[in-house]
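User: Show me an example of a complex going from sequences to structure tokens.

Assistant: Sure. Here are the input components:
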Amino acid sequence: MPAILIVDDDRDIRTLLAAFLAANGYTAQTAQDGAEMQEKLSRTSFDLAILDRMLPGTDGLALCRQIRQSSTMPIIMLTARGEDEDRIAGLETGADDYVTKPFNPHELLARIRAILRRAGHSGAQTAPESLIRAYHFEGWNLSLERRELVNPEGVMVDLSTGEYDLLVAFLESPNRILSRDHLLEAARSQPEAIFDRAIDVQVSRLRKKIEPGEASPPLIRTVRGAGYLFVPKVTRL
Amino acid sequence: MLLMLIGVGIVHVASLYAYQHALNREMGLANETRLADRLLTIRRSVMRVVPGERESVAHEVSGGPVEAHWSATEHARSGGPGMALWEGLRQRLVVTSGDLLDEDIVIGANRKSEADPHFVLVSLRLPDQSWVNITLFAPEAKPQTGHGTVLSTTLMALGVLLVSMLVIRWMTTPLQRFAHAARTLYHGTDRAEVPETGPREFRDVARAFNEMQGRIRQLIATRVQTLAAVSHDLKTPLTRMRLRAETLTDRAAATGLIRDIEDMERMLEQTLTHLRGDRKDEEMRTLDLAALLTTLVNEAIDRGARATIIAGSSAILDGRPLALKRAFGNLIDNAVKYGGDVTVAIADTGSEIRTEIADTGPGIPEARLEEMLQPFTRLDPSRNPDLGGFGLGLSIAKEIMEGHGGRIALSNRPGGGLLVLAVLPKHASAQR
């Protein structure tokens, strides 16, 4: 059972969230501030931390930086402010994801799952997978810090959450056949259940946005009966 | 600017005319005085000596355009052409001499010869009833106004005009800066300070204006901070409620509760967005509006809406991505909520991107179309209490479009339904 540490100054949110995560297959511990967080971290090893952005004393961003100095443990920031610069500041500090209060608990759950899967996929503590800032392919650039896709002409191309998750899954494993199940799991950060057929829809939507047109060879190849394969060479930045 | 120029021009011409007039008058007067003095000097010189020597003295004091003779009778006969001109001289002689009366002065042609317009004879009576006759070379009847004067005054006028144009520019530039600063006051966080330069009065006004601007910004900042604080404080209990809803065993009750929480959350977000206005501090990016609208339409489809998008391969413009996503998100949500089938069409006109969002709903009464773009305006809230929202979606969209130098217009479609047209300039440089 993956262990999660929740750091929030609101007692009710701490206990309610811990109970919700426990009900969904995680062991959860709580801390009300930076000092308690350090104490818990020193005694137990956690798979993931959820940090409130606004804490009395040392704030969430500073705590995130403290953790990053010694560990690549995945971090999700919680904030009451939905400001974009806040989100970017959080991600640039080294947080893996950012959730705005009040959040849908199921969405938080989906994001926890996606991040843990990604961390497990790369061998968590050894490979600095979570320190990848961007992917580069065929002149395109996908920034993980800003969650932004920019085409070879420097134009920002908007992606839905599902399309973004899907593209990240492809970029993590280029030139490998990815099954629908694998992609389904990857695109799960959306709370609504996505069934098999929906993956095809998502892939076709993503294709419309990143593939240059009929004339050029496709970036994403359909492998009949097996799944999809991302063709271009991918550079990690 | 033009008005001031015309004004200055009129004043200039008028003053030039007045000046010229006074100058002419002054010059005439000066000549008259000088001539009178000369004549009286001749008369005194002749008067001082015994009658035997008078003619020779008169001869001695002659010279230049003046030739004097002494005789027992006056040689001049009064009257003749142009004599009115000499009336001034006569009066001057009377006043200056002190002992000459009107009848002691005869001005006119020589009675012994034909009248010659080039000569005039002035006879002045001496106390012993003899006369001094002085022939003057008469100047032209009219004082000469040479082309030189006209040319030089015109040049002067042009010079004055040029200088006044510069001065006017110098004076109106600060005014234009005021206008610009006042217009951009609400947009953006970078202060549009009016430089405190120019004439002293302008510096005073500029300082006062900047202070006022500072106070207004302070006021807005305080208001936004207060609301941000309130909203933060509301979000914590909402988060608790949302988590508590998960613990309820009555799923029907939980679903209703969750929907209420989400409504409240959306209202908080909308209010905050509205208060912030179009966030100019979000970075300007080159982005593909077609991709952005495709995402929004697909999301609407995934939520069960009937929506279609008609777009070329791309529609590239400079804009603030999150703001535009919010604006178009509001427009598409509205269309889905009230309108049945939704069609989003994008067209690139070369300098602008035009987006039409059409629905098949009941539309909006013509008289209320404009009003719907105002904040907190809802179309008959009593009829559709389930639809939620509180009339900020359209006004937020309008603010964001205008913040991009674009515009938004509502109209009813001929076949029924509402048509929202949003026009955005493609380049940031086209924005004010």
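The lines above are the inputs; the final block is the predicted structure for all two components together. Chain A touches chain B at residues 10, 12-13, 16-17, 19-20, 23, 54, 80-82, 84-85, 101-105, 151, 154-160, 163, 192, 205, 208-209, 213 (CB under 8 Å).
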